[in-house]
């Protein structure tokens, strides 16, 4: 691994500082999406330079950020998720999981995210998977709705170690709003699970995960977001207020066309459709073993660049699918791609 450049270190520190405040994140998004900024030669040069550096790092052999979808199945039917509209189930075969962890560890991937579009703790072999990740010398993180995080399970995970981060998806503050957005989950049970986990974390003698509580901005919850932030900010490491997406058009029940106080995670046609960082930085392995570079594809599942049932992680990441997509983005031809060209998300290069 090469050492970070001074500018890279400054960007990382700036990113952490901004991420610590929901208000700062909202302001940064508005600035980054400003058509006036995006039209400037300096901004376009910055993005192209960052993309070129990412491409050079891939060619030098740097591994990606890796997500393994242990389960696609979810026990919630959240209104902003495609799980609310159609059945999506699946569990990653344990032999495939072990092989992928072994490949990742040998490749130099030192940490893995163990969730993409399902609730990881519905998996009966969840602890067994964590034990295998730890035996491979890797750390892990994941996203969860916290509905199944019992004190016993949390204590076992803390004792096992290597749990670096967790993002709890909590999309409402009041009982009425939470349970309308995240059926059939119960607000008091979930809030209680998180509070009990935070107590265990405080009492644990070893390393503990950083905790983010996140909420997607919706018409249903937008009026209680200030109260949501006030409640969680003293309790956790970070509060994240995300913008809504329609999962590349897969979500039918969407207020995407009607901005919720400017908080939808889309861009208008006047914005420059920038090269996306994902083809260089990210690798999502779905429960069936297929690979995508993009979390926005998690519902559509058509941006498939390889299959780990056939090829290794390294072969896919350096293979023709990833290479062709990077070339298209690098040379400002994202708009010509059948999926990326219709994507309204413009991730920042920071």
From TrEMBL:
The keyword Acyltransferase does not apply. Its cofactor is [4Fe-4S] cluster. InterPro entries: 4Fe4S-binding_SPASM_dom (IPR023885), AdoMet-like_SPASM_containing (IPR034391), Aldolase_TIM (IPR013785), Radical_SAM_PqqE_MftC-like (IPR050377), rSAM (IPR007197), rSAM_sf (IPR058240). It comes from Nannocystis punicea. This is Radical SAM protein. Residues 60-277 form the Radical SAM core domain. The lineage of its organism: Bacteria, Pseudomonadati, Myxococcota, Polyangia, Nannocystales. Gene3D superfamilies: Aldolase class I (3.20.20.70). Keywords: 4Fe-4S, Iron, Iron-sulfur, Metal-binding, S-adenosyl-L-methionine. It comes from the Bacteria.
């Amino acid at each position: 691994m090469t050492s970070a450049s001074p500018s890279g270190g400054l960007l990382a520190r700036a990113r952490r500082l901004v991420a610590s405040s929901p208000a700062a994140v909202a302001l940064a998004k508005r600035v980054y999406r400003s058509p006036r900024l995006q039209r400037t030669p300096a901004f376009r040069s910055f993005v192209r330079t960052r993309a070129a550096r990412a491409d050079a790092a891939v060619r030098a052999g740097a591994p990606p950020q890796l997500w393994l979808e242990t389960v696609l199945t979810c026990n919630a039917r959240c209104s902003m998720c495609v799980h609310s509209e159609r059945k999506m189930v699946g569990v990653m075969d344990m032999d495939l999981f072990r092989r992928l962890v072994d490949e990742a560890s040998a490749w130099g991937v030192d940490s893995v995210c163990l969730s993409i579009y399902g609730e990881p703790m519905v998996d009966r072999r969840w602890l067994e998977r964590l034990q295998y990740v730890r035996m491979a010398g890797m750390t892990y993180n994941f996203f969860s709705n916290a509905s199944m995080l019992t004190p016993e399970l949390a204590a076992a995970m803390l004792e096992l170690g290597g749990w670096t981060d967790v993002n709890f998806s909590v999309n409402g503050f009041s009982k009425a709003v939470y349970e309308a957005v995240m059926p059939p989950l119960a607000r008091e049970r979930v809030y209680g699970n998180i509070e009990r986990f935070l107590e265990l974390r405080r009492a644990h003698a070893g390393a503990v995960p950083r905790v983010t509580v996140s909420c997607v901005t919706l018409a249903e919850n937008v009026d209680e977001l200030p109260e949501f932030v006030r409640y969680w900010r003293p309790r956790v490491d970070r509060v994240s207020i995300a913008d809504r997406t329609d999962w590349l058009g897969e979500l039918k029940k969407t207020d995407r066309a009607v901005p919720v106080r400017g908080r939808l995670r889309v861009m208008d046609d006047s914005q420059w459709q920038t090269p996306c960082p994902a083809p260089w930085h990210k690798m999502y392995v779905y429960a069936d073993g297929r690979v995508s570079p993009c979390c926005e594809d998690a519902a559509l599942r058509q941006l498939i660049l390889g299959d780990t049932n056939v090829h290794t992680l390294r072969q896919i990441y350096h293979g023709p699918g990833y290479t062709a997509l990077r070339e298209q983005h690098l040379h400002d031809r994202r708009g010509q791609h059948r999926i990326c060209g219709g994507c309204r998300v413009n991730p920042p290069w920071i």
